Amino acid sequence: MTEASPLNRYQLAELGSLLAEPARAAILLALMDGTTRPAGELARIAGVSPATASAHLKRLLDGGLLGLHEQGRHRYFRLANDDVAAWLEAMALPHAAHNVPITTTRDAALCRARTCYRHLAGQLGVALCEAWLQRGWLHSGSDGLSLLPAAAEALVRAGWQTGSTQQLLHLRGRGCLDWTERRLHIGGPLGVAITGAMLEAGWLRHAQRNRALLPTPDGLRRLAELGVRLEH
């Protein structure tokens, strides 16, 4: 499933059937953080037997939603690509549009900042995208989103390594519609690289129990200097 290959009605029906089974939906959600996991772990997450999980994984592989990495006798599963992650994220939009936004303590961290596949989503991801577009650090064109030299220079001043920021200039991203904010954050290779650099710099850290990303005090201060501020 790619943007270059639009779905026909039969493919859309097949994708719907893949998500109609709660165990398969649980497997996909578990992989939304960009991790690669073995079948046994995914079976436990989905609450099904190994044999049942194996059947579900085969359907998801055949449907193009999962990718497979084989290492010796071991098999590890991941989302097929960023397009799948973006589609799964967007699937929540109709539900969000007709319901009160998530505000419970349990979900507040996910709304604030989380991984969408491997890039930054939630309030912080949207704030970063909008702030850098307004500052002219991020360019939106026909080939997607790209970082401009002024942004790389600002990131170096904020403590990032020169080499890593120069690499960002050669990557392309895309606007990914955020299901809680209903605005765009940065997806694609550029979004993945920016998020990875923030984690490496200690501006963000992974939550232990879900795909929330927790901004550190130093990270919030550094991001504020780069024009990125959370509203609350």
From TrEMBL:
InterPro entries: ArsR-like_HTH (IPR011991), HTH_ArsR_DNA-bd_dom (IPR001845), HTH_Metal-responsive_Reg (IPR052543), WH-like_DNA-bd_sf (IPR036388), WH_DNA-bd_sf (IPR036390). Residues 4-99 form the HTH arsR-type domain. Gene3D superfamilies: Winged helix-like DNA-binding domain superfamily/Winged helix DNA-binding domain. It holds the Pfam family HTH_20. PROSITE patterns: HTH_ARSR_2. It comes from the Bacteria. This is Helix-turn-helix transcriptional regulator. It comes from Dyella flava. The lineage of its organism: Bacteria, Pseudomonadati, Pseudomonadota, Gammaproteobacteria, Lysobacterales.
